[in-house]
Amino acid sequence: MPLFPCSISCPEVPRKCAHDGTTGDPSLYTAGANLLHNRFPRFPSGYPMDCPVPLYLQLAQRLLDAIEQAAMPEGTRLPSVRTLATQHAMSVSTALQALRWLETRGHIEARPRSGYFVAKRPKRGKRANGTGAAKAAGAGRWARPMPELDAQARDHLAITAAPTTVRLDLASAETTLYPVDRFSVLLRRLAYQHRDLVGSHVRGTGYPALRAQIARQAMQYACELDPDEIVVTNGCVEALNLALRAVARPGDVIAVESPTYFVLLQMLRALEMRVHLIPCDPVTGIDLDALKAAFDRGVPIKAVVTVANCNNPLGSVPSDARKRALVALLREHDVPLIEDDIFGDLCFGETRPRPVRAFDDAHGNVLLCGGFSKSLSPGLRLGWIAGGRFTERVKALKYTTSMATAELQQAAVAELLATGGYALHLRRLKAALRVQHKSLRDAVLSYFPDGTEVTDPAGGLVLWTKLPMLDGQPRSTRTLFEQARAEGIGFAPGHLFGEGGAFDDCLRLNAGNRWTSELEAAVRRLGELATRAIPAQGVATRDLQL
Ligand SMILES: Cc1ncc(COP(=O)(O)O)c(C=O)c1O
């Protein structure tokens, strides 16, 4: 029974009021706002007078959200009681009551004759937020909902659509490295010969020839997939979305690698699921000890998501032994694994690494997601999921999500796979990527400030780079991002890959471009800017592990 008549409740303060259905003015959450008045702006519409939640608690909740969403460091001064009362059109005693309420719960502290300040963060696990369902499962004790993207992060993501001259931001090879000519011929021919591919209604879970080819490809690296469990999707992103919804509900806790692919984090937010971050190593991948410890502590993990092969952004590939151990651990706890293997075909090693799914001997506990956006054609938006024991649910979700995926491009990819064209293309693409990776890495090491760390990925498309401290403070890639963008250079800033300011001193660079003198000049310029990059004020770089 929720404490307050709010649609989402938490044990301490109401998260969401039934009256307006919001958690307050989103502008409150503008991260990076250094001025106090930006952090605590005037609420435009005040509070609903007939809300049964006392006014002081509504204010307390909004202040707490503002503190958390902007990741305000310990010691940040709050507005005075009088200012709060004026801003929020309430009495001084109500504002004071809100502050005292936060103080008694350890969120803020009073300093004699100075006012109220953000207190040292309460230990994780002490404070809980949660939907009714999550609360019932104890989820709120262990995990957080992903915060909404702040305005700056939205800007950062929008760069994918921006006219940037040097694209180090995406995880994609340049157009000339994909078999575009081959596809244009194939698509024209197939549309002409098989008119139903364009003129008929699309039914089913994917073009049978493509599903068969996906299963055949997987056999080459000893991963057994049944074509009937494969659902073809609109990109790997749709596969991930279906997988999450097949195994979990809003409020459930999903364990993900940290850092991880930022769209996954935002997807979890959109699905109102909670994240529990598990550290990921640039060589060995997801930290199995940390995952085991989370289970031992009783974290109610509903599913785990891993990008095991050529992880984005770290480029790691765990050993087979680790993959086997991951399967065993999850089986022991009866928790499904969602594996994103979109980069598996782009690993540089002699043999293509096996997905974790290959070690799940017919148990069906791994939902394997893949796709061709990285390896064959970003524009065709073709992905797939092999749902294991969740297949029927995945199929039902696909039907009500997008019904089906256009078949013309599926037929084209199926043909390329069947005729060996894909294997040939992959060999060329990987050879090019290997050279580009080396050139980009060497350039970063020579042009970026001394002490910069760069991953040496086992394949894939991206390099993860960590800037050294400046005067004992982590440099922020947020400001660097703005400066670089002004000069037409795009990269993916690190904070997108974590939560609450984690990885703010990191950046992800795309190695998918052919190495040219123009590209080298851009990396040199980025290095110059990085040398001068300063810590972002008010943005705490913190480890978000519990
Ligand atoms: C790990 C990972 N999964 C999925 C995707 C998206 O795949 P698609 O474009 O096929 O939806 C990306 C794109 O960067 C990615 O890095």
List keywords for this structure.
546 residues, Arc Repressor Mutant, subunit A, Aspartate Aminotransferase, domain 1, Aspartate Aminotransferase, domain 2, globular, disordered N terminus, disordered C terminus, binds pyridoxal-5'-phosphate
Could you explain the architecture of this structure?
With 546 residues, the chain is an alpha/beta fold. The chain has three domains: 26-143, Orthogonal Bundle (Arc Repressor Mutant, subunit A); 151-175 and 424-532, Aspartate Aminotransferase, domain 1; 207-405, Type I PLP-dependent aspartate aminotransferase-like (Major domain) (Aspartate Aminotransferase, domain 2, 3-Layer(aba) Sandwich). 37% of the residues lie in helices and 13% in strands. The protein has 18 helices and 16 strands. It has helices at 36-39, 55-69, 81-87, 92-104, 132-136, 151-158, 180-193, 196-199, 208-220, 235-247, 262-270, 288-296, 320-332, 391-401, 407-418, 421-447, 477-486, 517-532, and strands spanning 108-111, 115-118, 144-145, 166-168, 230-234, 253-258, 274-281, 285-286, 301-306, 337-340, 366-371, 382-386, 453-454, 462-466, 489-493, 506-510. The strands form three sheets. Strands 3, 5, 6, 7, 8, 9, 10, 11 and 12 form a nine-stranded mixed β-sheet that branches. β6, α11 and β7 (274-281) form a beta-alpha-beta unit. α10 crosses α11 (262-270), α10 (235-247) packs across α14 and α16 crosses α18. The radius of gyration is 25 Å and the shape is globular. Residues 1-46, 123-140 and 538-546 have low confidence and may be disordered. Pyridoxal-5'-phosphate binds next to α10.
